[in-house]
Amino acid sequence: MSRTIKYAILVLMIVLFSKPVLSQEKEKTKMKWYSIEEAVELNNHTRKKKKFFVDVFTDWCGWCKKMDANTFTDPVIAAYMTEHFWPVKLDAETKDTITINGQVYINPRPDARRSSHQLAIAILNRRMSYPSFAFLDENVKLITVLPGYNPPEKLEPVLHFIAEEAYKEESFQDFLQTFQGSFNK
Fold it and tell me: How distant, in Å, are the alpha carbons of 68, 89, 104 from that of 152?
């Protein structure tokens, strides 16, 4: 066999055998998302309570899709969120009825185009922009809302600030002065 054919076969084998490894690696870091009802129920029946990270999105939002593709698939972000939060996806325009701790939320105009759901309105304090991320404490009370697209390196310190409850003692700017994350090493 000629050297060129051997080289081509070697390259082909590397490509074919490396794909399963790459997809398995990505699978390991894939984050499981919950509905808000599922997450609250799980939190109510576990010993170690977690805070909630609520991704409020719409299906027409391009920046929401970019967050899904870039930020939420990052292994550092996925691992930290899975360990410290209940990751929740909330379609701001869902037609579903949602019940949390006995409170019922609906979309008052489910057949209207771009009609916001009552829960999205409540969580975002009527500031409807997408994507937006709501942080809720273990009792499903709002801590804060982070609007807009956030790449992994920008979201990481916010996740730590909330999970470590630094927000109770210092400003985010003060927290950033000493924060050493995975992206700024």
Answer: 11, 18, 34
In a domain, 49, yes or no: yes
Long-range contacts of 42-49 (CB under 8 A, 24+ apart): 42/86, 43/86, 43/138, 49/138
* Domain boundaries, position 123: 29-178
For 133-163, the pLDDT digits (tens) are 999 999 999 999 999 999 999 999 999 999 9
- 98 lies in a domain? yes
Give yes or no for a contact between 83 and 32, defined as CB atoms under 8 angstroms apart: no
pLDDT tens digits, residue range 32-62?
999 999 999 999 999 989 999 999 999 999 9
In the block, residue with structure tokens 């808000």: 36
Q: What is the CATH number of the domain that holds 67?
A: 3.40.30.10
Contact at 8 Å (CB) between 131 and 57?
Answer: yes
SS3 86: strand
8, part of any domain: no
